[in-house]
Structures are given as C-alpha cells and as structure tokens.
Amino acid sequence: MSISLKHLTKHYGSTNAVEDVSAEIVHGSLTAVLGPSGSGKSTLLKLISGLERPDQGSVVIDGEDVTDVDPRHRDIGFCFQHYAPFRHMNVTKNVGFGLKVRKRSPKEIDARVKELLALVKLEHKAKHYPAQLSGGERQRMALARALAIEPRVLLLDEPFGALDAVVRAELRHWVKELHQQIHVTTVLVTHDQQEAMEVADQLIVMRSGRVVQSGDPLALYERPATDFVHEFLGPSTTFAGEVARPHDLELVSVYQGTMKGRITSIVSLGFEAQVTVELSDGTSTWVQLSRNELASMGLRVALLVGVRRRDDVEF
Amino acid sequence: MGRRHWPLRGVVLLYLGVLVGLPVVFLVLKALGHGFPAFWSEITKPDALSALKLSIEVAAIAVPINTVVGVGAALLVARHNFFGKRVLDTIFDVPVAISPVIIGVALVLAYSRIGWFGAPLTRWGIMVLFSPLGVVLATMTVSLPYVLRSIVPVLLELGVDQEQAARTLGAGRVRIFWYVTLPAIRWAVLYGVTLTLARTLGEFGAVLVVSGNITGVTQTLPIYIFDSWDQRFDVLGSYSGALVLAMMSMAVLAVLALLRRRERRLRVDLA
Fold this sequence. Notes:
The structure holds two protein chains of two kinds. By secondary structure, chain A is an alpha+beta fold. Chain A is built from nine helices and 17 strands. Chain A has two domains: 3-229, 3-Layer(aba) Sandwich (Rossmann fold); 237-312, CATH 2.40.50.100. Chain A has helices spanning 41-49, 91-101, 106-119, 135-148, 165-182, 193-199, 217-222, 227-233, 291-297, and strands at 3-10, 18-25, 30-34, 56-61, 64-65, 76-79, 153-157, 185-190, 202-207, 210-215, 237-239, 242-244, 249-252, 259-268, 272-279, 284-290, 304-309. In chain A, a hairpin with a 2-residue loop joins strand 9 and strand 10 (210-215). In chain A, helix 2 (91-101) runs parallel beside helix 4 and helix 3 (106-119) packs across helix 4 (135-148). The longest helix of chain A has 18 residues, at 165-182. Chain B has helices at 6-32, 36-43, 46-79, 85-91, 94-97, 100-111, 118-123, 132-142, 146-158, 161-168, 173-202, 205-211, 221-230, 235-270. Chain B is mainly alpha-helical. Chain B folds into two domains: 1-32, no CATH class; 35-270, MetI-like fold (Orthogonal Bundle). Chain B contains 14 helices and no strands. Chain B is globular, with a radius of gyration of 22 Å. The chains are: A alpha+beta, B mainly alpha.
C-alpha cells in the first residue's frame, strides 16, 4: 500500500515539530526516515499512524484520505521505540491482542499467533511474560503483535535503538529478510545512517522538521543535495572549500596534488587508515586509505604531501 | 546494620512501645479483663451491633463510590490536559488537609434546612443531616483522595505507550481501560481502596458533627465507643467496641502490608 503525505504540519513547543512535509512512500518499499534527534521524524510516524493529528495537511494511504480516521481503524502496525509490551500478558496474549479485539474466533487467533511466533522465532517463549524476554525478543514480539492484524502499513519507531550492537546488527538483517518475505510497506525511523543505508531501499532525510532530501540511498550518498545530507550520510571532511568523502580523496606527491600539506597524524584502524593533513591554506582534512595503500606509500607524520580528489585523476 | 545500631533501634522501639504498644496492650487487657463472655455480651448488645452494622454499611457504600470516582479522576489528571486541572487536583486534597470537624461543620452549613443544598432537599423530603445519608456523605468526603493519590504516580510512570499500542491494534477506549490500563494499575487501585477503607472505618470528627449521634440510627462504631465512654460511663462497652474496631483496622493494615510486598515484587519483576 502506498502512502502519500501532503504538506503535513504539526507544532508543539519548538522541537519535534513537522513543517510542511510532503513525501511519497512506494507500495512494498522499506523506507527509512533519517535525521538527528529533534528533527521531527518520530512525530512524522505518529502523524502517519494517527496517534497525532496534523495541524495542517493530509495522510493518504492507498488512495484513501485517512487524516480524520482514528488510529484504531487505520489498519496500521506500529512498533514503539520501547516496544510497549503489555506487561501483564504473556507473549501469546500480546500477539493475539489485535485479533481478540477484532473478535476473531479463539481457534483462528490460536492458529495465527502460532504462525506469527514461528515467523519471529519465538515459539519457545509463547508462555513467557515480557519481563522474562531479552530486548531483541521483546522487539520481535512487538513486530509479531503489529503484524497480527495484517496491517496495510508497518511503522517502526527507532526499532533497534535500545539494543546492544550485536543484537542490533542481527535484528537489522532479520528485519530486511522479513520485509522481503512479507512485503508490507514499511516505514522506519532512525537516527543511525548506517542502519538506514543497510536496511532501507528508500531514504527520507529530515532536519528541523523538514524533508531535506529523499530517494534511493546510494543516490543520496553519491549526490547529496546539501552539506547537511553529505555530512549526515557518511564520513565527511572538507577539501578545497567543499565537503568531501575521505575515501574520495587520495595522497600523492607534492607536485601532483591539487593542494599540498603536511601530515599531522596517522591512525590505523586495521583494514583502513585515517591520515590527517594540514593544508597550505590553513585548513585541515583527512583522507581514508586502505591498509595496502598506507603500507606501500611509506607515509609518516610531518611528511609533505599533495592531496587531490580520486576522480580528478586524468588518464 | 546488625549490632551497631542497637541504641537507635532501642530508642525507636521504646518510642513505638510508649505510643502504640502499651495503649494497645492495655486495651486488650481491659476489654478482655472480665473474661471473653463479658466481652462477647458487650459487643453483641443491640446498640453495639447496630453501630458495627452501620460502620460496615457506610464503608460498603463509600468505598466503591470513592474508588470509581478516584480511578476516573486519576485518569483525567494523568492522561488529559484541560483548563482547571490543577484546581481539580488540589481540591481532591482538601478533605485530608483540613480537620474533619471543619468538614462536618461545612456539611452542616450546606445541608441544614436553610443551607444551599439542604433547603431544596428538605422540600423533597430528603434529610441529609442526622441521618445515615449524612454519615455516608461525611465519610465519603474525608476519604476522597486516597484512590486518586495511589494511582496517579503509577499512571504517570506507566506512560501512554501501551494504551497507544492497544489503540493502533484496534481497541476502543473501554477495552483499552479494561484490558490494558486497569491490569497495569491494579495493585495501586487495591492499595488506594485499602487506605480508603481504613479511613472510612475510623472516621470520627466529621461523622460526629453531621450525624447528631442518634443511638441505633446514626451511630457508627467510633462514635459508639466515644459515646459509651463519655456519656454512658460504660467503660467495658467502650473498650470492647474499641478492640473490635482496632482488630478490623489491623486486618486492613495486614492486607495493605501484603499488597505492598506484592507491589515491590512486581516492580522488581518489571525492572
């Protein structure tokens, strides 16, 4: 189901506001809304779900204007940042809640819950209470609960935010797989660019309540519309007065470089190295090199070098 | 802990002993001093029984009503913003902040034959003062805030996430309350109910003023105890009634202690 957001505006106080946001979310896509904290991305999600009402603008799901529809009738699966498990219900009851409210027969609920628990690999925890689950398990339970109602749209608010690094990476991978399996239009909110780039097939970058740029992740990475997007989507530095990716720069001999400078530090991170250079114009930049490049060039601190963009090389 | 704190512990125990222990011990000794049969015949006297019955009836009416009102008001205060919210919140505390006697006097002013509410009610034949109705009203007033005060902090700590999740899953207000909110606050509600009950059973000042102290009609157990002592010089009757009331209150306290332990365990579970 496609979602279109038309001139959505929502104010409360000064932060977390949403300012005239318009976006198209393609049917079956996995879209990440990416932005720093306070950029309004979570508010945008609440507007789509109906848990918040916009001051202006409209939300259209699959051609139907749902702006005035109560969230309980929107058929939206919402996963909260802290999962919002019903603490007094076990996993089975949690997952079956939406179906019970919809007055499905106990037999049908039972079958559907079993199916979903298999999908999220929680069959062995069916009778456990949320307090007895790990963070990742709670997250999967919340997903199963949201999916139980066969939502038209799945909304995930900072889905991996509260998990440790290992579980995070695992779950990220798993969510992507799950999405390929069930193909429900999914919007997730995150402040982590790596997470967004890895999981999503569409990006919406937000800042101060506005959409800065949206589109294919690789296109945004390669052709950021603003310095903000450039800096937010990946490592960046400045070179010759412009924002540049450190891996797009290279070190050459003093005479070949667009600019020259002196190496002030070399940090080796194993598979890559970060070389900081103080340029002749007084600014400082850093260049990302592979381990092999570093080894073959015989670099050391205080050496004079030339710096240029890799794509500036002429054959 | 251990041996090092024995002086402090000694002082605290002595203090508690003088304030609470000794009087209770004396009460038990005096009430049962003439043997259990004497005690039994005292508390089964018609006036004593009718006082006990009225106390229980008043609690049976006042506690449920204050529970429903308290839960409703707590939801209003914790989940909604509206004009006058802080005033409402403060008004709930007035009954415990001021002396019960003042509440009694205020009720008399309002419900006497020439009072604002009293005049029309009298015309319809409803007597509030000097009737069991007045006793219920006074008791409800003094035990008003306990349920609200027990629930609001729990509701605030709970947050709205679970309720919002239920809403996106298709639940309406009524179902969200029964399936999600109430189970989450049930221990706090029970705690508030117990406090309300304890206060209801023990109320003296406000009830004395509005009831007119009519033996067998508007006499609750605390007033019967006072009346036996002060007016009828029936010392044994007074002691016996007091022991019954004390045992009822202690039963309530025991339930409260159990609830507290349960709540603590629950909190540890959820942490």
